[in-house]
C-alpha cells in the first residue's frame, strides 16, 4: 500500500463536517501518507485540518465543495516540493513509533496515578 501512495504522489484524506467524531478524528490514512512521504489534500475539518496546518503537510478544501477541492489540488501540485519537504520534516513527529511511545507514557502515568489506579504511593 505504501508504494501505491508514493507512486500516486498525493493522498486524498476526506472527512465530513457533519459528525463530531469526524471533527475529532485523525484518520490512519493521514499517517500512512506521511509514512510514505506524500503530501495530502484533506478536508478542512477539525483535528485533521489542525494537523495539516500545523505541519504544513498538504492543502485543505471545504467538505462537499468541488471547486474548493480542485483549488486544493492545484495548490498541492504548485507547492509540491515544499509540501514534500514538510512531510519529511514532520515524519518523525507523526510516526507510529512516536505515537506508540506517547501512548505508553500516558498508560504508565495513568497506572501510577493513585487518583486513577486506586493505589497509594506509601
Automatic annotation (TrEMBL):
It holds the Pfam family Glyco_trans_1_4. It comes from the Bacteria. This is Glycosyl transferases group 1. It comes from Mobilicoccus caccae.
Amino acid at each position: 500500500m505504501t508504494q501505491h501512495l508514493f507512486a500516486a504522489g498525493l493522498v486524498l484524506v476526506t472527512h465530513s463536517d457533519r459528525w463530531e467524531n469526524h471533527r475529532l478524528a485523525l484518520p490512519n490514512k493521514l499517517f500512512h501518507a506521511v509514512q510514505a512521504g506524500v503530501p495530502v489534500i484533506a478536508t478542512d475539518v477539525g483535528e485533521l485540518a489542525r494537523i495539516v496546518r500545523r505541519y504544513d503537510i498538504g492543502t485543505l478544501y471545504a467538505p462537499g465543495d468541488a471547486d474548493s477541492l480542485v483549488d486544493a489540488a492545484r495548490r498541492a501540485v504548485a507547492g509540491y516540493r515544499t509540501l514534500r519537504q514538510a512531510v519529511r520534516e514532520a515524519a518523525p513527529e507523526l510516526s507510529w513509533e512516536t505515537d506508540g511511545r506517547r501512548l505508553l507514557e500516558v498508560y504508565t502515568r495513568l497506572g501510577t496515578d493513585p487518583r486513577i489506579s486506586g493505589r497509594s504511593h506509601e
